[in-house]
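Quick one, tokens below:
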């Protein structure tokens, strides 16, 4: 997997050197072009070797979803701050973790904490429960389902 990523970066830099233009758009285009070239070369290999080609689109989708979730949370908080009434309904949730390794738990905790209105309070000693403070907690089950399906599920697809 790391080998494919390094090869993709090398192809990207070759593209940038050939075109002679170092800017973000050209770099992204070179990365996409290198990804397509590597995919064409490796498409008949074993499933293990194809993991890179399934993870990159999933990672891109996760980043786009995270930015959407981030914007939505920012607008919700801005609306609450600018209106005379407060719509907050704070609460603490015990979230059962599917993530097992310290790296997975740390990544999940950071992503949840980066979203405005949520904060990680603690992780249980056995690393099976995450305690989350949410500013807008209408329904605990819906909140847990949102994190499980949309955040943790997508993150673990990329990391595992």
């Amino acid at each position: 997997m790391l080998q494919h990523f390094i090869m993709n970066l090398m192809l990207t830099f070759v593209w940038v050197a050939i075109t002679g233009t170092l800017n973000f758009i050209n770099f992204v285009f070179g990365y996409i072009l290198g990804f397509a070239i590597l995919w064409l070369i490796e498409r008949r290999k074993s499933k293990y070797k194809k993991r890179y080609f399934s993870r990159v689109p999933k990672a891109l989708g996760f980043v786009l979803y995270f930015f959407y979730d981030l914007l939505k949370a920012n607008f919700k908080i801005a609306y609450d701050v600018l209106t005379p009434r407060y719509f907050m309904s704070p609460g603490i949730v015990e979230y059962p973790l599917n993530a097992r390794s310290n790296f997975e738990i740390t990544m999940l905790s950071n992503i949840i904490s980066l979203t405005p209105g949520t904060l990680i309070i603690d992780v249980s000693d056995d690393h099976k429960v995450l305690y989350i403070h949410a500013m807008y907690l209408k329904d605990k089950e819906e909140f847990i389902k949102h994190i499980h399906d949309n955040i943790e599920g997508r993150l673990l697809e990329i990391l595992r």
